[in-house]
Amino acid sequence: MVKKGQAALEFLTTYGWAFLIILVMIGGLAYFGVFDISGPENCVSSVEFGCQSNILTDEYQVVKLRNNLNEAFTIKNASIISNGVSIGNCLHSNTVEPETTFEIYCTINLTPNKKESLQIEMNYYPSTGSSAYTKTNTIQIKSKTKSATELAETGSLIRPSFYDLLAYWTFDEDSGNIVYDSSQNLNNATIYNTYSRLTEEQCKRGKCIELTNGGGGYVRTSNTFQLDNPKKELTVATWVYKTGNTGHVSILGEATQCSTPFIWIYGTGTATNLNLQYRNGVSCASVQLCSACFTLNEWMHFAIVVKYSENKAYFYKNGNLVSQPALSNSEFPNLLRYKYLPAYSSGGDKLYGRLDDYRIYTRALNAQEVQNLYLNN
């Protein structure tokens, strides 16, 4: 009887230790993330805003959502929250149409390869309504933080539409002549002379401004833009609604600055062409981006991509590539002075018409990214 009891005790002890070792191994594997499940299930949102994908890196955090509402809405603001405390504001799409996707992009420094449980809080209101009736939606994200550097090295870096934004003017202010920069770079602008602020029904995305024909209206900022860009690339994208054929139509920059590197994107008045002027190392040079590309009283999306190191420009209209002219010894403008802004130039070179959703990037957007901007993705 004693021998049987001793045998039973030895059996339990042996297998007890084995069981304990297995538990320790499982705990270790779980600690190092072997059992982590990544994917959409780590992003939880309400039924109204379905989570499509998300990524957490040590440099930025992106969540892609879908508007499942039967109406368009406008995002007032968004923030990222950890342990119930807001740790920063986020960039976001502006007006989102029904059944389309949109992004919220945050730039908080996190620890690589660490499990995080974060919330992104989005305040929004119906585009046909007032911002006084704001609602809140919370997105829960649980994921392991990736290294942005490693993603870049492997070529799998996800770049959201807000990546490398130098300035982003939505023109959604209700009143006043100040235009706030939504890129968080504080490149706020001022509207001068005669202008009007228009409602959503008259604009392309949210509200917009109209620079009155004959009133000399224009937009500029007092900041000097530093283009710290080793690749020597630049993208300008905006919605334009031309209401008159008077003079030149400046989209970016000012004419005749040939003594230093510059950029001027302008259209000729009655001919409705669009041109790019730059310095070629000696004097001014210009190329035509498109001919007869303006249509009066119609919204058009223009995107101009310039790769100075390759001496190449790309012009997109309404999301489609129209031309890719070669440049000659183009000089990269390291500084965009205060005059290099939307709709500003001297004399009769100002834009007569409306502007909406104006962006300047310090990199070259690819064709799909330009298409996404046109489709509001």
Report what the structure shows.
With 377 residues, the protein is mostly beta strands. It has 2 domains: 40-154, Immunoglobulin-like; 165-375, Jelly Rolls. The chain is 12% helix and 40% strand. The chain is built from 3 helices and 26 strands. It has helices at 2-31, 148-154, 367-375; strands at residues 43-44, 49-56, 61-67, 73-82, 85-92, 95-96, 101-106, 115-126, 135-144, 165-169, 178-179, 189-192, 195-198, 208-211, 218-220, 225-226, 233-242, 249-252, 263-267, 274-279, 284-290, 299-307, 312-317, 320-323, 335-336, 353-361. Strands 1, 2, 3, 4, 5, 6, 7, 8 and 9 form a 9-stranded antiparallel β-sheet that branches. Strands 10, 13, 14, 17, 22, 23, 24 and 26 form an 8-stranded antiparallel β-sheet that branches. The protein is globular.
Helix content range: 10-25%
Please compute the radius of gyration using only Cα atoms.
Answer: 26 Å
Question: How confident is the prediction overall: mean pLDDT?
Answer: 78
Q: What is the fold named in CATH at topology level of the largest domain?
A: Jelly Rolls
Can you name the CATH architecture of the largest domain?
Answer: Sandwich
Strand content: 35-45%
- Contiguous uncertain segments of 5+ residues: 31-41
Query: SSE string, helix = H, strand = E?
Result: HEEEEEEEEEHEEEEEEEEEEEEEEEEEH
| Shape annotation | globular
Largest sheet: 9 strands, antiparallel
User: What is the CA-CA span between the terminal residues?
Assistant: 78 Å
Count of individual beta strands:
26
Number of helices: 3
- Can you identify the CATH class of the largest domain? Mainly Beta
Helix/sheet category: mainly beta
Structurally, the number of domains stands at 2
